[in-house]
Amino acid sequence: MAVVNTNHKSCTVNPLKMSQPIGAALAFMGLNNCMPTLHGSQGCTSFGLVLFVRHFREMIPMQTTAMNEVNTILGGMENIEQAIINIWERTKPAVIGLASTGLTETKGDDVEAHIKLIRAKHPELAETAIIYASTPDYVGAFQDGWSKAAVRIVEESAVYCQVKQVNRVNVLPGSHLTPADIDEVREIIESFGLCAVFIPDISGSLDGHIPEDFTPTTLGGTTTLELRTMGAARATIAIGEQMHAAAIELEMKTGVPYTMFDRLAGLDANDNFLQFLSNLSGKPVALKYRRQRSQLQDAMLDAHFFTGGKKIAIGAEPDLLWALGNFLTEMGCELSAVVTTTQSPLLEKMPAEEVLIGDLEDLEMRAKNCDLLITHSHGRQMAERLHLPFLRFGIPNFDRLGAAHKLSVGYRGTKELVFELANTFLAEYHEATPDSWRESFQEIGTELSNEAHTTCASNGSCSSCN
Amino acid sequence: MASLNEKVQDVFNEPACDKNQAKGEKERKKGCTKQLTPGAAAGGCAFDGAKIALQPITDVAHLVHGPIACEGNGWDNRGAKSSDSKLYRTGFTTDISELDVIYGGEKRLYKSIREVLDKYNPPAVFVYQTCVTALIGDDIEAVCKAATAKFCKPIIPINAPGFVGAKNLGNKLAGEALLEYVIGTEEPEFTTPYDINIIGEYNLAGELWQIKPLLDELGIRILACISGDAKYKEVAYSHRAKAAMMVCSKAMINVARKMEERYNIPFFEGSFYGITDTSESLRQITKLLVQQGAAEELLSRTEKLIFREETRAWEGINRYRAKLQGKKVLLITGGVKSWSVVSALQEGGMEIVGTSVKKSTDEDKDKIKELMGEDAHMFDDMRPRDMYAMLKECRADIMLSGGRSQFVALKVKMPWLDINQERHHAYAGYVGMVELVKQIEQALYHPVWAQVRKPAPWETLSSEVVEAKAA
Predict the structure, then answer these.
(1) Which of A122, B320, B376, B471 makes a 20 to 30 Å CA pair with A107?
(2) Interface contact flag, B162 A381, Cβ < 8 Å
(3) Residues facing B128 on adjacent strands
(4) Is A168-206+213-286 a domain of CATH 3.40.980.10?
(5) ipTM reported for the complex, 2 dp
(6) Least confident of A397-411, B10-24, B168-182
(7) A335 CA to chain B: closest CA distance, Å?
(8) Mean pLDDT of all residues in A431-436
(9) What pTM was estimated for this model as a whole?
(10) Which helix (H) or strand (E) holds B441?
(11) How far A34 CA lies from chain B's nearest CA (Å)?
């Protein structure tokens, strides 16, 4: 149980947090043939685009309504209309995912009404879904934007289905899951003879594959058909607290019951997940996963020597923090400095004394006596200053390759986490030297040598006299 | 104090820009930024431009007044290098909340300035305006004025909110802020007849340091670089330079021109990309310095240095020339540096099959025509789809561009080289040119291309089987 505090500074220094609209944009990137579009000035999109390009090292489809000073004040309907028409003409997307920004929210554009009017005026858009999420920059953080977009995707697309697909499962993954994580979860679910549809699914669009042809929109992800048939599934699995709202919405609209999994890193968490899937499908856990479970147990045994008692400084969004924080605690580490970006019901349950909603300066001040730093790439300056070993987790990860392929779910992903963690400590292991323990004797040593001075002052051969 | 609108008009009305002067009165008022097309726009905003232009000043605290997006989504993401202070890489933002939007963010800004001064003690704080805080009417000029008076440190307002226009306008507005609040406010300990300013050079990947040794050898002192690896005080006393070089085309022409008017510092427009351009720039620098009273022997010393360095660079490039001869290059840059890179590549024996001129001025375009001939392939706005087609059909062997279009090339399994903001290699001056040619050679002849282009054996096998069956 943790005390949740918010820092009382006016100035944020070295932000940990990113804004809602780009969280929403990433969720829209998990829809097939989609053009995520931010309703704001061109810079709002440009910063997000550069961030994702550097993180995923992929082409990122993202557009802007290009608001300027004048049309911000007069209202952005014309710009939204032009943007939608231009995108439609140029790329013919199946979905346009629109997210507002601080700029247009301050003005108070009624985007939903605008979209209705635009639809009435342009019947040619009938086949294109336009999903809008309200995501002001000055509220919440990245995962909130993702969460809101997911809710809106469900609201706009889910319909009740009379006919059920007995094997189908909906999966609502949080923004902390990488494309590799999604692929792993899919494989696990499929091993029970079930068929998983992820909403949204960035494993199709941002997993770094090479397409046959040029696509200006997303090149994979949840298809419109899959969205329309969410109601035909027999169950919904939500991964991460941020997907709770979308799961409830989906159940209310379609009657498909949901189950929450707050995390999928750790032995216990995966035991629960596989047991659930086994119950759902009526099939036993596949041999492959029994084997993987045993490998994970073995990895944990091998690693526990090196991870026990280590102090961790961690900065991450709530759901990633929850997953990693609990895993670390299960490996015997202590969460000494914990900083996050936004509110979540999970925060007070964190296995730490304090969880601070703050920035990397706060983390740096608390991290001085820690053994390891875990946060996104912006922790690099702090790690250097504090001489801390540093593991990069979360978005952005711009100074290492393979962000999309980082696996941390399932028995296999947990095993990789275990090794990564333990190896980091092993790399920091310092060989013993003759002076390693001298300091601990120093105080008592001086007392003795003082005594020696008084008793054998005349004897030059006594080493303590020299 | 001029309003933001007046200032925007002022920078649009740039007498040193011939493109601007060729326009009619009415057209000129519209400014030089093209109207953006919603749904088909790319590139950064004015705030982004202002930040790019000023963030390389290393010992200043750069404080962004706005919601988290403006700083949180993109801080510490540029390759401007510092020889000393790392403070410029620290992200400061007021991170305004919903309540600030309702009640105004000025108090938070004022308190933020105090916190930054208390904790980091920088010689100055630059406060950047953003869209939301501009829209709700936060008067950052007034807050900065009050803070300057209270804390006895220069607190400089940079009024370039994103929605006033594109990156280029932001560069210029940043320059205006320097002219209004910084330049001329301090004095150097001493001056020499060999003091110059370099304006519009950001020391990306440390490129300034590829040039500095040459200037050092000639006894020329960079009084201030605006703004690569600069200290606040250097910019503040830059008005004592004897001559100036303006790099990066028109981005900061207003600074160079107004410093000439106000402080009598003659300037020229030059580039450190390419061998001939570097030599030409060195000649211009020394010519201006001699005009301003430096000893004439500087000219002959410069020629000797140029001869030595050119010989060395040509030898360096010649090692690659055979392998690069006739290779076709597609060059997509922000536009500003197109022509300087064009001549540089031609020196390496390569053929430029196309270049983007989206942000180039008419003058830039003329220069490109001069270099590439009248039928030069210049693209105003090349769509990624077209770049993709061009590379897929092998009409180019390699693409040189900024980071965001790299995957257009990589996804067709064609070589690509980063020549933009985030690049890791430095390409300036004589050594930089050799490095660029070396990198191009390395990219073109990398062993991965053959591997990744080869189809999977079962793909060829199956087609053979099909053929065999058909036969």
Answers:
(1) A122
(2) no
(3) B64, B158
(4) no
(5) 0.92
(6) B10-24
(7) 25
(8) 87
(9) 0.92
(10) helix B429-444
(11) 13
